[in-house]
Amino acid sequence: MSRSAQEIQDWMIDRLSRLTGSPRAEIDPARPIQNCGLDSVAQVVFITELESWLGYRFQGHAMNTLTTVEMLAAFLAKETQE
Amino acid sequence: MLPFLAIAVQLALALVVVHLFRIEQDRFFLEMLALGSAGFLIHAWLPTRFRLCFFCALSLSSIVLFLGLITAAYVLGIGAGLIALGQLRVRLLFQVLLTVVAGVLLFIWRVESSGAFWVVVGSMFMFRIIVFLYECGQSERPPLLSTIAYFFCLPSVCFTLLPVIDFKTFRDKYYDDDAFEIYETGVVWIVRGLTHLLAYRFVKYFLLPAPHEIVDFPHFLLFLATNYALYLRVSGWFHIVTGILHLYGFNLPRTHDNYFLASSVSDIWRRINIYWKDFMTNVFFFPAFYFLRRYGTRTALVGAGLFVFVATWLLHAYQVFWIRATLPLGWRDAAMWLAAGIVVTITLFFEFQRRSAAANDSSSQTIAGAAIGMAVHFLKIAGTFLLVSLFWARWTLPNFAARVWVLADSGAFGVSDVLLLVGGLAAIAAVGGIVGVIAASARVPKLHALLPGVRRGATPVTLLTLIVVGLPQINEFIGPTASDVLATMRLETTEPVEALVTVQGYYDQIADVAMPSSPLAVLPWRPQPAPPLVKYAAFSRPVDEWLERELIPGWSGTVADKPFSVNDIGMRDRPDRQQTKPPGVCRIAAVGSSVVMGWGAADDETFCRLLEARLNQERPGKRIEVLNFGTGASVAIHRRVLLERKVLEFEPDALFYIAHQDELPGPARRLAVLASKVGDVPYPYLRDVLRQANVTREMPLVETEARLAPFAPAILRGLYADIVADCRKKNVLPVWIWVPVPGVTNVKVKMSEVADLAEEAGFVVIDLSKWDDGYAPNDVKVDMHHPNTLGHRLIAERLYAELLAQPKAMPACAR
């Protein structure tokens, strides 16, 4: 399913907010996702739900290189369009 | 300017605290913090482009300064080689292969060599090189300066355990915020690290129960909690290391997050040594997880979780190898880590389910719900603390399982203990419920909103408080007990203390590895190295398992810087002493340890000699001899045997039995050794104890020790009764004298505990608890355990006064 980067970014901020218990406003899309306080289980939950929502499957640990919400959203928007 | 001055003043105060409490003195931490602080004063004002270069130069200089040229050359040479491999412009696979080959060569070299540089090379490179290579695989080759800063960063040279800093984080977080905010965080962390190290000392010296005290459930719980709390040393080091890095702009995340408050086994994994968790997650967990995903997400989660724990076990052994040159790959550790891995993985699995559901649940909570939720949370914290303490004890103590078995076998855990546990948990839940209600009612300001202000104020207040209590002059304003506590807190001893003998766990083994010798040791404020010590073995000789050693007749030399002579009949006594008692002479035989023998005092300065002189001086016409039968490393079993074999041959009129803080646990440990070495135990009461404890000769020593520890009072009771019976047969007055060594408050034996046993056996009891007459421990001692000349004089004077006050403690012939 094709989604815009903004849509993906909004979804990610919403999910991160619920997983970490932080208000949406406190999640900065330009800061590294791991700084939000996500532990390994939360990362797995986040990734699997993101994959399920987008119908896309990561081949490796994307958050190592695509560290911010912005970067990951832009990447996924491009990937799902293709 | 003001923030800079505030930070500079706090660093100066921190230096005073480190100096007063001699924090990590053997690791030259005062000098390292001084260098780090001085470097900060320059670095903070440098143009940004020169800062990293300055930090690298300072870090490399610190290696030469602290280790000397030769050791530093090894460290820098090996380090440069490894870094050069990382900088090669070749394919990553080839680079990894080259590094593995280099690692194997270094491994072989390490097996063959015990060079002092290995400890530093190991702590700097063993994990960071893995992180570095992993990072090289994720992005382009890192700049050289960042690489040098990463591996050789400033405080590393002082510590054998270093946080496994993530290389990417190290680079990304460099000046990523306001500079003075970062510096201030650094100071906060340094101070937090210092408080952790002092808390560690307090736990080690005052709370950790000695082995013989663990005889009931409350002491068992106290032991579990305090043994786990010894980890404070590691968290203290990590706070300090990352705090110093903050002073140079590395805005690193926290290394620990209130780990005593973890609420599940996976939560502890996230809170304790967070850098390790991140290292394992990035380098092992996620690669394994993505590799296993073809079998399903849950299978991958479980598989990756178990893989992480197997890797953790292997990497802990790998760490010990580089620091201590042994490779502890035993089945015991493997089974334990695997069990821990299974527990954590099951928790991960259920947590994954729960959080997947929770991520879709946005329902709000009522106050009642919040109270219940918080009560459950508090219970989970208590349960996790207990579980982790058990794991920690199992990991750090080789004989822990045997100890628990002995306790359970002896009926130490009863119904009342279950009630105690349930009551304690109910109280914890109630407190949790109250906290939940308060938090949910939102009538109190949010704590995190107050934190920055509290933090700013708390750091200087903590430092000033520590300085006040660290000043020896404070003794004039507080009671003697508090003075003793503070005097002990100011001691940085690495001598194995009573309780710590059994708590030489994983981290202690690594943390206690000595630093290579440093050229800084000659600095004027450093403790001057003691002259080479003559050891007890030099002037004593083996006898048998029961007596172990005796003084070599006729030996003379210098011991602890004092003339030391052994007479022809093997006693630290007058050269003209005879075994046969001359007519009209009244004899007092003193038996005891090296304190009685007079380690640290000249021949004519021992309290036995001084007491003898005083007794004769005050009783003209009488001839009184105080015979010194003191020997080194002596416990009640040795004294009982000595009495039988030697002392009674001298026809004494009184026996002065001198006891110190090690009186209770010593005989149990000695009996454990005897049980494994000697087939026949001739003393029936000792045979009874061995039988009751189900000890066999084939049993491993650690298990025998564990089984005998609860019988320490019974062993001492039997020995005392036997000594008194022998004395009565020969018409000898038995006198038991308590002479505690000041400043040795870490050995938890109450005088009343052993004095009651002595009195029950029939000894006349003399308490010399306050013989030090208000002097500071270091003023009356030559080392940790032995009184000096002044100390012996004070003991003699106090003993004489007590003998006058208690005439029944004097033999009739001397009254």
Secondary-structure map:
The complex is a heterodimer of chains A (82) and B (815).
Chain A: H1 5-20, H2 40-54, H3 69-81
Helix pairs in contact in A: 1-3
Chain B: H1 2-20, H2 29-43, H3 48-87, H4 92-112, H5 117-125, H6 128-138, H7 144-152, H8 167-172, H9 179-207, H10 217-229, H11 232-246, H12 265-271, H13 274-292, H14 297-324, H15 331-358, H16 367-396, H17 400-409, H18 415-441, H19 447-470, H20 480-489, H21 506-511, E1 540-542, E2 549-551, E3 556-559, E4 562-565, E5 585-591, H22 594-597, H23 607-618, E6 623-628, H24 636-645, E7 654-659, H25 665-677, H26 684-692, H27 701-708, H28 712-729, E8 733-738, H29 751-761, E9 764-767, H30 789-805
Parallel strand pairs in B: 5-6, 5-7, 7-8, 8-9
Antiparallel strand pairs in B: 1-2, 3-4
Helix pairs in contact in B: 1-2, 1-9, 1-19, 2-3, 3-5, 3-7, 5-14, 9-10, 9-11, 9-19, 10-16, 13-14, 14-15, 16-18, 17-27, 23-30, 24-28, 25-27, 25-28, 28-29
Largest interface: A-B, 20 and 25 residues
Mean pLDDT over all positions of chain A: 85
| Uncertain stretches of chain A | none
Helix-residue proportion of chain B: 55-70%
Major sheet characteristics of chain A: none
Structure description:
The complex is a heterodimer of chains A (82) and B (815). With 82 residues, chain A is an all-alpha fold. Chain A is 54% helix and 0% strand. Chain A contains 3 helices and no strands. The model of chain A has no long low-confidence stretch (mean pLDDT 85). With 815 residues, chain B is mainly α. Chain B has 30 helices and 9 strands. Chain B has helices at 2-20, 29-43, 48-87, 92-112, 117-125, 128-138, 144-152, 167-172, 179-207, 217-229, 232-246, 265-271, 274-292, 297-324, 331-358, 367-396, 400-409, 415-441, 447-470, 480-489, 506-511, 594-597, 607-618, 636-645, 665-677, 684-692, 701-708, 712-729, 751-761, 789-805; strands at 540-542, 549-551, 556-559, 562-565, 585-591, 623-628, 654-659, 733-738, 764-767. A 5-stranded parallel beta sheet of chain B has the order 6-5-7-8-9, with helices on both faces. A two-stranded antiparallel ribbon of chain B has the order 1-2. Chain B is globular and about 95 Å long. Chain B starts with a helix and ends in a 10-residue tail after the last helix. Residues 494-503 of chain B have low confidence and may be disordered. Chains A and B meet through helix 1 and helix 2 of A and helix 13 and helix 15 of B.
